[in-house]
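Lab notebook page, bench 4
Experiment: in silico fold of construct C2
Operator: M.H.
Input chain length: 258 residues
Purpose: comparison with the prior construct
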Amino acid sequence: MQQEKIIWTDASIRWFVESARHTKYYEEIVKQCSFLFRPSMQVLDLGCGAGILSQAIAPHVGFVQAVDSCPKAVQSLFERMMQEKITNISCALVDWKTWRPTRQADVVIVRQPDLLNQLDRLKNATKQYIVAIFPDPKKENRFFLGNISLPAINHWHPGTLQKTTQQLKERNIPYHLIRISSEYGQYFKQLSDFEEFLEFYYQIPIGSVSPEIQKTLLLKKEEGYYLPEKRQSGIIIIKKEDITAYPPRQKSNIKISL
């Protein structure tokens, strides 16, 4: 069960950044993980995308290294760092699944549904903790555009988090699970931006959505428009020392005859 691959363009980055500015999703992740962070800590954010979570973490730690393989996403983070004079984040344009960091971080953060296959790599990259952020929808949420049913904005398949926790139990690896539910819809500065969004993600031609339907979907917010949605996520926290401390559970070969 994999997430839909995020397509990073100038427009999609703009939508992500605007949504993050008008909602508290990333601040909620940092709040829930605050007991891990110390002012002197080094954090490694793998698959950081546009780096919005890296920015939210930066005020709480000593240094964040943000890593992603998409040039546009990394450039977007770098430009915001310059604009906002953020000095404790560094950007690396690499594929973290093949990259070897030169030093270990105190905490490694990853948005990776296929956690178990990357666990050894993550263990080698951290001194203390692995923090894995997962989608946790209860169902495949959808929204309605007139008579058309479309996947919700943040479209994830249910069951990924549950599958991973079951795999951790089978390997006898202790973990701490935190579930969060936070508003994280899409913010648009103007209606034409909303139409561009529909064309980009759903191939709905610009101009084909009536003003009446737009009004049923969008909330007027500040100087723009907002397409509301709740995002459910699960945060799995694993201590490095626990990954190899416990042997995997053995399946019993005992047969019971009646």
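Observations: The longest helix spans residues 71-84. The chain is about 30% helix and 25% strand.
Next step: discuss at group meeting.
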